[in-house]
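EI: anyone free to look at a 425-residue chain?
SC: sure, send it
EI:
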Amino acid sequence: MKLGRRSFLAVSGALVAGAAGCVTGDDNGDTDSGDDGSTDGGPVGDDNSGDDSDENPNGNANDADDDQNQEGVRTPDPEWRYGTGGSIAAVSNGVLYGREGFANGSGGVVALDAATGERLWGYGETGGYSSFTTPVVGGDVYVGYGDDAIGSGSGYVAAIADDGTEQWVTETGSVYEPPVPHCDALYLGSDDRRIYRLDAESGEVAWSHEVSPPEGRAEVSVAAVQDGVVCATTEDRLLALDAAEGYERWLARPDGGRIRSVHAGEQVYAATRSLVAAFEDGELQWTSDRTGGSILAVRDGAVYVSDGFQFAVLDAATGQERWGLGTDDRHAVGVGDAGPYVGLREVQALDSAGETRWQRSLDGSPIECLPPADDGVYAGTDGGVYRLDGNGEVVAESPVGSLRDLLVADRVYAATDEQLLALDL
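SC: here you go
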């Protein structure tokens, strides 16, 4: 599985550590930030016909019955394959949204029928040095665009209707993180050193707030919007802006270098490379240097955080470590209702106190992601996708190689560099 070129912010409820691209979702649509490379392209709403070509046979449904291996594990064939790889982001109202890879596709946003894999429409085109953000579904489909020359100030945000029609385009600087929809508005940061509020229906700029990042960098990202406050980051600073008016409420520096992850709730938690810090109304509440990296979840009074090698569960009120573990190689983590799952070359299920509930070996290859299921967990490896039940037994598997993204919604959707697939696991 490939990490995107750009950093991502793990916002409320993210379930991934050590690998970008494995997410859980529902039919209202959840987003993912696996970046595929891309290049110059304007806001062109192209290919609304859904036509396929001989070189790219897309939307092929598979009617074969499920098979079982000798251990009684279901090994169903993919329900459909879409013959262009890329990344997947969300399912909403029976439509799967993602981005095509630029090597064998447009690099733009794509919408597929979630049941059949038929291409409904595509939007935009890129090449090797620019890309679209993950598309976000919130009424319309919203997407940002930018290039890799940070500070170039060249980019835009676009709204696309559910039939693929471009609704509006608003020029900004380059946009590297998805816009955040909230209460009929969109909030985003761009490399023109501004945070924007746009009207979600018209794209008009309600306000923009100029920030002053450290010399030489201009990446500004909105992490979350909650209770009338916009939480944004720029390099090593955390800002809170008034959502209605755009003025600065407070500014904080967590220390530890660049901010990599933010979670906004009753308190705002920020993780850098080496630490986690908690703020309330801009006042520092605590810091923990047990680990940094990505905040995976904040639930049941605990903060789950990992940098891929160190995993820690911190008390959300005090920052004290409840328990943690370290690994020699990069691990994946998923946080479920029964407790967290940690994977290297086998899956380890832990309870809320860090005690092992069960362990399971799979195909021997590194485990890239562990999105939890209602009664267990999914595991994505270099060799396939597996579903494990609440006792750690493998109940279904599919040999999907070179996995890039995994989305758990009404069914399991997988993305590789060569194709997108729907799996009945």
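EI: The chain is about 0% helix and 45% strand.
SC: 👍
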